[in-house]
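Structure (tokenized):
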């Protein structure tokens, strides 16, 4: 049975900060951000958006009525969830209008969560071929104002429908994975910003790629010549390149290097203007590759490297399907990104400092400037309140 990605789409907030302006405000040479780490814009979530609404908006743009009836499993990967008990998947289930006969839960392992969800989805479809699974990857990356990690923040969500006989990509059976208990990045429950050992995390990311690539090569017998492109989890767009280049130069032919490096650049175009979205970063990269590369043919094999600090890594692969381009939402995504509004560094800082009450008091939020269909409208009795504006029309 062929199982894989039937649909894929993303949603990001309608606000962003220009990285050159952020660099100037922080007394940093702008090229250190735009060239050094490869970031141009950083998505900023307004106070009326959280990980639930970002994911719900991504799903709302993607699903039709047939999908909603067929989906019987919703898996939500995040490392910036909004509740220690109730899963974000349950909120999305109601906001999007999915069938009640469904399983819904949240999964966490840093930026690896959505990949874990996809692998679980494959098993579910193998047992239930007529079902579909909605996998959501949604995060708001926060390191703190003036922190070393500030320039690798971002916000957004990717939604994927996993099914039998997928229209976009069949996921192959062989994969390689690796777990090691390390402290390269973490966020305790008492903190709303993350902690990171940047140099150590970069080293581990590279080591994990080398490890799982070697394992995958031994399992599959495949080499770089068998791949049209490789996509990476990209907390910043130069990170994947740091891991890829040494191994590619050691093992790949000149032709392999030119092809894979060219397609790598296509795969990071969305990430450059969105920033780090944690669990969704790999899949935003995949979308960028598919929607920015005209020459990718059906039958092409794409490699995917997923890394979640702490740490778990996996390398797996997919085969593009006939006419896959007809099932992408390239124009919608292009228009969505171009319609965003640039805000000043001062506006970004003001948004960053806003906090919801933690004492059970009521707050009502003004959503009139938020163009998203699904928004956070407030809190009452320690409960977040959401609205789907399309139901009010």
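Design, position by position:
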């Amino acid at each position: 049975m062929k199982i894989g990605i039937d649909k894929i789409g993303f949603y990001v907030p309608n606000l962003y900060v220009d990285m050159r302006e952020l660099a100037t405000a922080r007394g940093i040479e702008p090229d250190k951000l735009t060239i050094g780490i490869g970031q141009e814009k950083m998505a900023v979530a307004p106070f009326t958006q959280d990980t639930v609404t970002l994911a719900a908006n991504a799903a709302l743009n993607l699903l039709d009525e047939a999908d909603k009836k067929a989906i019987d499993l919703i898996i939500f990967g995040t490392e910036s969830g909004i509740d220690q008990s109730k899963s974000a998947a349950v909120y999305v289930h109601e906001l999007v209008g999915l069938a009640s006969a469904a399983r819904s839960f949240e999964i966490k392992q840093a930026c690896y969560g959505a990949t874990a969800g996809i692998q679980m989805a494959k098993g579910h479809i193998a047992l239930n071929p007529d079902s579909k699974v909605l996998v959501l990857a949604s995060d708001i990356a926060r390191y703190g104002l003036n922190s070393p990690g500030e320039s690798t923040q971002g916000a957004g969500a990717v939604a994927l429908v996993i099914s039998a006989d997928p229209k976009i990509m069949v996921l192959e059976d062989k994969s390689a994975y690796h777990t090691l208990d390390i402290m390269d990045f973490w966020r305790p429950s008492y903190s709303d910003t993350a902690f990171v050992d940047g140099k150590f995390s970069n080293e581990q990311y590279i080591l994990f790629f080398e490890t799982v690539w070697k394992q995958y090569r031994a399992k599959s017998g495949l080499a770089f010549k068998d791949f049209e492109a490789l996509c990476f989890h990209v907390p910043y767009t130069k990170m994947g390149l740091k891991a890829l280049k040494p191994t590619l130069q050691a093992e790949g032919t000149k032709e392999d290097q030119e092809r894979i490096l060219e397609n790598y650049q296509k795969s990071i175009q969305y990430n450059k203007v969105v920033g780090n979205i944690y669990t969704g970063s790999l899949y935003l990269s995949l979308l960028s590759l598919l929607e920015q590369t005209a020459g990718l043919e059906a039958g092409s094999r794409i490699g995917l490297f997923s890394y979640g600090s702490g740490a778990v890594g996996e390398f797996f692969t997919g085969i593009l399907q006939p006419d896959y381009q007809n099932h992408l939402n390239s124009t919608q995504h292009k228009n969505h990104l171009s319609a965003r509004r640039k805000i000043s560094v001062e506006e970004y800082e003001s948004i960053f400092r806003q906090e919801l009450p933690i004492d059970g008091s009521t707050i009502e939020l003004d959503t009139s400037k938020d163009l998203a269909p699904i928004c956070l409208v407030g809190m009452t009795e320690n409960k977040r309140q959401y609205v789907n504006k399309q139901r009010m029309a």
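Reviewer-requested clarification: The mean pLDDT is 97. The first strand starts at residue 3 and ends at 11.
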